[in-house]
Amino acid sequence: MLSMTGFAMNAPLRRSLLNGHSSNPLVRKLEGLAPLSEADRSILDQLAAGARLADPHVDLIREGSAPDAAFLVLKGIACRYKHRQDGKRQILSYLLPGDLCDPDIAHLSRIDHALGTLSACSVARIPREALLFAVERHPNVAQAFRRAKIVEEAVTREWLVNLGCRSAIERIAHLFCELLLRLQAVGFAENDSFEFPVTQVELGDTTGLSNVHVNRTLQELRRQGLIATGQRRLIILDLPRLRALAEFQAGYLQPAVGTDLCTAH
Amino acid sequence: MLSMTGFAMNAPLRRSLLNGHSSNPLVRKLEGLAPLSEADRSILDQLAAGARLADPHVDLIREGSAPDAAFLVLKGIACRYKHRQDGKRQILSYLLPGDLCDPDIAHLSRIDHALGTLSACSVARIPREALLFAVERHPNVAQAFRRAKIVEEAVTREWLVNLGCRSAIERIAHLFCELLLRLQAVGFAENDSFEFPVTQVELGDTTGLSNVHVNRTLQELRRQGLIATGQRRLIILDLPRLRALAEFQAGYLQPAVGTDLCTAH
DNA sequence: CGCTTACTTGACATTCTTCAACCGCAGTGG
DNA sequence: CCACTGCGGTTGAAGAATGTCAAGTAAGCG
């Protein structure tokens, strides 16, 4: 029986064998993108160690700074965003548990956008060197990171479509479908519901809508029996109809792990 | 004098010494991102060889296919785009001379967007292996490609802001500012004007506006004395005012070549 | 010359924003 | 315990921005 050998295993391995996946959302995410060895998982646990709590609506990286570390979200929701001079802001992407804000952007003269929390978050700061070390020693991890980046780019393309040619209700429906799948992938959703402590103003900054219109659009989604909200949770009541409304195609979130045409580089 | 030794040089070097830059837009672009040796330039010229002409409004890569080659634009304007079921489409990015559509996206089960020409184009098809070979043997080229990618991501972020929170006139003004700078960087602009054979429908697909509204917005830009159009050219008459109107910050197009925090990877 | 494609215009409909007020809840300090 | 405060959500009314439809014009091309 497994329990007989349990005392000899380290914690991540034991968790992994008992329930099939790690409690570290970074491991859970990357496991879905490339096969990981126990050593790979271990280094990822080291990267995730030392996480700290961050309040909601707080900046982690300010626009114009030059960070020397990446940030890994372990709990809660953070985002990249840009401000305009007139005070409007645009949220560029959500960072969910397991998502990493890589500081490659340091190549630019200044970082051109900010990183901030939406809800309260648990965030690990990963020094650049630690990340490079992990990637150099663990090719599977490097591979998984590359694939994560490719998915991230696909998500960004979908956001462009959202802002460019979907109606208000379609934008929000599409966003909710995306978030459900991404959160399911890291074990942060139950059935079709998840914690969603994002304000309507922030939803507006995400979807390019005013908070008033977000409010009315949410009411319409509720009226149609597609979602329910409350207690900082979002419950998707009718996923098939929500997906149909948003014309949501899940493919872009799931890279084909089998066919790998780009191991080198 | 230079001409005395000219006969002993190969063509790219001679061009390079005579007028300070290559006629290959890929070389011109990457030169601005990393220092290149003569061997680097030579390999880039090889990549650009064998270009073929493509008609306007033609697909180079169709949505759902799995390309094994990258495409390099040498002349004209191409774009990535996505279609919606109802026929609307969103253009995701412009590929100007020197821009490369890398096929990393083959990681996804299917490529989730199409690549097509806007104007007539001269396009080189670069087999995956040739690209990998060049990158492996020429670290400076690899470095420049990485930086090009980072700039591309910054451009995408700016497009998200465009679609999410700028008005019609600001969106178009911002796009024109971006295109001017990008085209200047590869020598495809004279003063503040450039060839711009993009239809108003396509401008609408780019900016998330209807063609009618694009038309009226262009009229407004002309009326304010900011631009002039005709003969498939765009002339920017008052760049400072256009930039002010768009709140255009050029920084994101110009990575800091001096401070390189990420040579490894 | 006739065809096609792109551009232009006007009238009208719709979507979404803005403004302003109000509600309700949770935290805070007296 | 209660009043106060602040934030987030909700509502209504009015207006601005943008889309749609339909028709007409101009320019390039075989």
UniProtKB/TrEMBL annotation, chains A, B:
CDD domains with a match to the protein in the record: CAP_ED
One cellular component (GO) term of this entry: cytosol
Keywords: DNA-binding, Transcription, Transcription regulation
Classification of source organism: Bacteria, Pseudomonadati, Pseudomonadota, Alphaproteobacteria, Hyphomicrobiales
Domain HTH crp-type: 166-240
PANTHER family per record: CRP FAMILY TRANSCRIPTIONAL REGULATORY PROTEIN (PTHR24567), DNA-BINDING TRANSCRIPTIONAL DUAL REGULATOR CRP (PTHR24567:SF68)
Name of this protein: Crp/Fnr family transcriptional regulator
Pfam families noted in UniProt: cNMP_binding, HTH_Crp_2
GO MF, one example: DNA-binding transcription factor activity
InterPro entries xrefs: cNMP-bd_dom, cNMP-bd_dom_sf, Env_Response_Regulators, HTH_CRP, RmlC-like_jellyroll, WH-like_DNA-bd_sf, WH_DNA-bd_sf
Superkingdom, taxonomy of origin: Bacteria
